[in-house]
Design brief:
Length: 207
């Protein structure tokens, strides 16, 4: 009994140390200075898709990427949000050299409403919440690569994807929908979280 107690105590201590070593994610608000830098290019912008109709869940594991009826889709509010964000992006004159989009219907529709048809489908950005830890690993590695991939001078890379994918990588579950997470291409990993642009931030940024 004493041996078992010691073993359990050791396990709990190890878990406590591991938890202590994991930094807590702290969200940073966008600043005017950073926003002006984004206007000059050189950043990766990760945007969560618009609000969805939660009464219709993904038909996991039988989601068919070519059949939107098997997926959770944008709500009317989510569609309007994406139109609004597209208008804000154009008003801000944020240069976009490349737009990468998850193959899910809700992300593709978000891209179409916000920026039109000029985007690339990126299978590695597939929604990860229903995946096992093992299945997630290639997605995490692919997202790391996308965030560190050099951005062409004078523009930014825009990624339109899902909250769970970024949570898997940096421990940040993006809220609310339509939030843009800004990454600089610096640091040991080749990318570094800089700030978030919430939908409610746009009126102040565009003054």
């Amino acid at each position: 009994m004493k041996t078992l107690t010691c073993l359990l105590s050791g396990i709990l201590l190890s878990l406590s140390v591991a938890a202590a070593d994991t930094p807590t994610f702290i969200e940073q608000p966008i600043t005017r200075e950073l926003f002006e830098q984004i206007r000059s290019g050189g950043f990766v912008l990760y945007m969560r898709h618009g609000n969805t109709d939660n009464s219709h869940a993904d038909r996991f594991p039988a989601v068919d990427l070519s059949d939107c009826s098997t997926q959770r889709l944008l709500s009317d509010a989510g569609r309007q949000l994406m139109r609004d964000i597209g208008r804000h992006l154009r008003s801000a004159k944020l240069p976009l050299n490349r737009v990468l989009v998850s193959p899910m219907c809700r992300t593709r529709e978000s891209a179409q409403l916000a920026i039109g048809e000029a985007f690339e489908i990126s299978e590695p950005l597939m929604y990860s919440a229903n995946m096992t830890s093992e299945q997630k690993q290639p997605r995490i590695a692919a997202l790391k690569k996308l965030l560190a991939e050099p951005v062409k001078a004078g523009g930014n890379t825009l990624i339109i994807a899902h909250a769970p994918n970024l949570d898997d990588l940096i421990g940040f579950f993006v809220k609310p929908e339509g939030t843009i997470v800004v990454f600089r291409q610096t640091g040991n990993a080749g990318y570094e979280y800089a700030a978030s642009i919430h939908p409610a931030d746009w009126p102040g940024l565009l003054k």
